[in-house]
Amino acid sequence: SDISIQDECAVKYQGFLLMRYLTVKVFCISALCGTFNVNIPQKINVLRGSCVNIPCSFDVDNTHDKNLDNSCKAYWSDSSSFTSENAKLKPTKEMTGDLTKKDCTTTFNNASLLQSAKYYFRLECNNPLKFTFTQAGVDISLIAAPPSPTLTPSTLEVEEGASVSLTCSSPAPCWSHPPALTWSPNLGQSQETLQENQDKTKVKTSVMNFNASHLHHGNKISCTAVYQKQDGIPDVTAETSLTPDISYSPKDVQISISPSAPILENQKVTLTCSSNANPAVENYTWYRADGDQETFIGTGSSFNVTVSKVKSTFFCKATNELGFKRSSNLQINVQCMH
């Protein structure tokens, strides 16, 4: 009537006419089962044709620490009740961490061995230590295309000149072949790191730092993750982008004139002031330049004026909430009337 350590927690006893010493032993085993724990991620997306690393660590009851020896082997199955004989996956020593140090991290270089299923870890040694860790399983999902990278922040609204830091992150289920991250356009210095999540899975991260310019406004910024496969299939990519909203004071303030040449003295012309600004220009103001003198003559994006041979130099100013900029002087060539 002795009960082995093998799958104690899965042992079920029916009926109530058990002998007293057996009841006591079952109680002890139930208490013992609480000290057998496994730490694995809840879910991992695996790219078909690539490898996957399953981070894994475990604890056994301290009375079985002595049984953790070189005879111990790792097994994985999509069934919570299995043995080494019917295990779906039997990783070799090279594929697993040091089981004697309670490290059951497993690497599958050929993801085709896996199927989309929930896998459980089993430890089996050539001694009484044989246990299936059914407390937690890892959901493996085989995917044909990688997920889109994550951009942080997902939107960008800053003033020109602001220091910007964009972070692009993409999961790295295969630690030996993490995705390569590229920025388009490359606006500044970028730095890549392979970071560890709380559940011990890993993520590739690239941080790009630059100073915001009005030239960036409305122009898409993209981060592309390139995943290298191991089965000869071409690399696969995934992309995420954002369109920055950069606010800036007026730029490129220019004046156009209608009609153009020839302009006769005392002729009426229409001057138009244009500018590039975000937010849009709130008002335009017009000035006549006479040597060092600047005389305010009107407002509005367009302005009608009668030109004369002696007073035919003009400029405009464009203003928004962030500032203003003036145009260069426009000297109108006025012809004398014959």
Automatic annotation (TrEMBL):
In which broad location class does this protein mainly occur, judging by the first location in its UniProt entry? membrane
**Coiled-coil regions listed in the entry:** none
Pfam families annotated for this entry? C2-set_2, Ig_2
Know the name of this protein? Ig-like domain-containing protein
Q: Which SUPFAM superfamilies match?
A: Immunoglobulin (SSF48726)
Q: Return the PANTHER family for the record.
A: B-CELL RECEPTOR CD22-LIKE-RELATED, SI:CH211-171H4.5-RELATED
**Membrane topology qualifier:** Single-pass membrane protein
| Location(s), subcellular | Membrane
**What is one cellular component GO term in this UniProt entry?**
membrane
* InterPro entries, A to Z: CD80_C2-set, Ig-like_dom, Ig-like_dom_sf, Ig-like_fold, Ig_sub
Q: Does the keyword Disulfide bond apply?
A: yes
Where in this chain does the record put each Ig-like domain? 147-243, 244-331
The lineage is:
Eukaryota, Metazoa, Chordata, Craniata, Vertebrata
Q: Which keywords does UniProt give here?
A: Disulfide bond, Membrane
